[in-house]
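Researcher: Good morning. I'm working through a list of sequences from a screen, and I'd like to move beyond sequence-only analysis. For each chain I'm collecting a predicted structure so we can compare shapes side by side. This is the next one on the list. No need for commentary yet; just the structure.
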Amino acid sequence: MTSTQINPNIIDSFHYGYGPSSVAIDDFDRDGTTDIVLTNPGGNEVDVCFARKYNPYQLWDKSSTVRLATSSRPIQVATGDVNSDYLPDLAVAQEGSSDIIVFLNLKAQQFGAQVSYALSAAPRQVLLTDLNGDNQPEMLVLTADNKLQVFQHTGARDVTRYGTPMQLATGDNPTTMQVRDMNGDQRPDVVVACAGDNTVRIYLNQSVLATRPQQLAGIEVYPNPATDQLTITRLATPGGPLTAVLLDALGREVRRRELSAPQVALSVADLPRGVYVLRLTAAEGVFSQRIVVQ
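Model: Good morning. Structure tokens for this chain:
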């Protein structure tokens, strides 16, 4: 049996100094390292601490932090790609307002101006998660008036991506929620804990799931990370031509090639260092993989 060990003497820490109320982690600049985002209710700001990839002795400190101003005591933050550009965005709950604010990730360690979505009361928690299998995250919010509010993603890439939320009654004083398939039907359900009446409420997801294309089998892509070229090998018997598309972190197409041989090379030598997405499409299905160019 393999044992789990954590060395208490190896701690990478930095002094934040503002009394953070919540933390989330993601790779916001798609450089292959994990960044940290913190809410600071006392200072009315959300701070994104970018990892310093080439300093292994101290990955995070205040010098690499981007501060986003808020107005009403941000208490919790969630991350997710709300506009389909392969970059994680931010959804922030503020206890002093009746809305959720969203900051779009603009790449290059920059975020856009906040966009607000109205609620019936002050938020307690926000989550971004795909409930219907269309690869677009719904926005789930617990509010102080004992409601679970669900914003369905419309598929739009502008501010109309979230409209009027569906409102579901909870127990008294809902404090936290998690999303997981609770009944084995391949749909993520919502579980809410309510401190006021000591209950746990389970909301079963009855969404009609979007049809996803079949995943291509027998695909190998190497090396990853890559420096000069990617080798794409198709081990299974081809059912037809294969189209390879390489997208950058903003979702822009930087390479496209039709593949007919069982093994081909795709040059990446002239591409900037960073994280890309390789998509392979054939009549029998699709394949995608995150690629690091260094």
